[in-house]
């Protein structure tokens, strides 16, 4: 989800974007580091929204969360589980959520599509991989066990609380996703002019 700090005074993405357009470069967004998923995603959002936010890279997610809670940056993209404690404490304000549907724990929070960003979904994904050359029967056995675990009722309930959508399937599904990202990200990084320091 996209979040801001209580200290920012913004209660909606619309308000934040209006302020960013009125004062280009004055508002900051934080990431877990240069090239991190949430860095690239917010740069994409920045371009789509037609604003110019200043990037503040942190050394990991923990310092980023501390920075957003302290009001050092006005925008960040966090996963649900990382943002929950700050939201409950009132120091983090959720603005928009990624994904196709509203999350059950925050049904009042609009999605990016509902806010007008219909072809943009910066959701993070996590996959399980094995070394190249792992025998096919071993891959098949691991895949079957993982799919069984992902279908478990308790696992689904735990995932839902944390804002995760479980998606198993055949190994080719993940291989295709990796290939898609490997093709898309180099061009995106060049276009956004993202450079490591």
Topology diagram in text:
Blueprint: E1 2-5, H1 13-22, E2 28-31, H2 37-49, E3 54-57, H3 61-69, E4 76-77, H4 80-89, E5 92-96, H5 136-150, H6 153-161, H7 171-192
Parallel strand pairs: 2-3
Antiparallel strand pairs: 1-4, 1-5
Task: Report what the structure shows.
Helix content is 45%, strand content 10%. With 197 residues, the chain is mainly α. It has 2 domains: 2-124, D-Maltodextrin-Binding Protein, domain 2 (3-Layer(aba) Sandwich); 125-197, no CATH class. Helix 2 (37-49) links the parallel strand 2 (28-31) and strand 3. This is Tripartite tricarboxylate transporter substrate binding protein. InterPro entries: BUG, Bug_dom1. It comes from Ramlibacter terrae. Pfam families: TctC.
Broad structural category: mainly alpha
**How large a portion of the residues is in β-strands, by DSSP E?**
5-15%
Strand count, sense and barrel status of the largest sheet are: 3 strands, antiparallel
Q: What is the rounded Rg?
A: 18 Å
> Helix and strand string, N-terminal first?
EHEHEHEHEHHH
Number of helices: 7
CATH topology of the largest domain: D-Maltodextrin-Binding Protein, domain 2
Give the class-level CATH name of the largest domain: Alpha Beta
Distance between the termini: 27 Å
Low-confidence stretches: none
- Please bin the fraction of helical residues: 40-55%
Structure summary, number of beta strands: 5
Give the count of structural domains. Answer: 2
Q: Which architecture name of the largest domain does CATH use?
A: 3-Layer(aba) Sandwich
Indicate the mean pLDDT: 89
Q: How are strands sequenced across the largest beta sheet?
A: 4-1-5
The CATH superfamily of the largest domain turns out to be Periplasmic binding protein-like II
Protein name: Tripartite tricarboxylate transporter substrate binding protein
Family: Belongs to the UPF0065 (bug) family.
InterPro entries: BUG, Bug_dom1
């Amino acid at each position: 989800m996209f979040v801001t700090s209580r200290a920012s005074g913004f209660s909606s993405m619309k308000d934040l974007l209006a302020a960013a357009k009125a004062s280009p470069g004055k508002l900051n967004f934080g990431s877990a580091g240069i090239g991190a998923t949430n860095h690239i995603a917010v740069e994409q959002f920045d371009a789509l929204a037609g604003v110019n936010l200043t990037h503040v890279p942190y050394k990991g997610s923990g310092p980023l969360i501390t920075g957003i809670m302290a009001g050092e940056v006005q925008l960040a993209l966090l996963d649900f589980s990382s943002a929950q404690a700050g939201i409950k404490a009132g120091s983090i304000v959720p603005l928009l959520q990624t994904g196709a549907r509203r999350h059950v724990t925050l049904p009042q929070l609009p999605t990016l599509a509902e806010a007008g960003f219909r072809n943009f979904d910066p959701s993070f994904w996590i996959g399980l991989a094995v070394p190249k050359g792992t025998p096919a029967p071993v891959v098949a056995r691991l895949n079957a066990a993982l799919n069984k675990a992902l279908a478990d009722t308790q696992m689904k309930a735990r995932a839902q609380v944390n804002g995760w959508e479980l998606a198993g399937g055949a190994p080719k599904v993940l291989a295709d996703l990796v290939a898609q990202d490997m093709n898309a990200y180099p061009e995106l990084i060049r276009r956004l002019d993202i450079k490591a320091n």
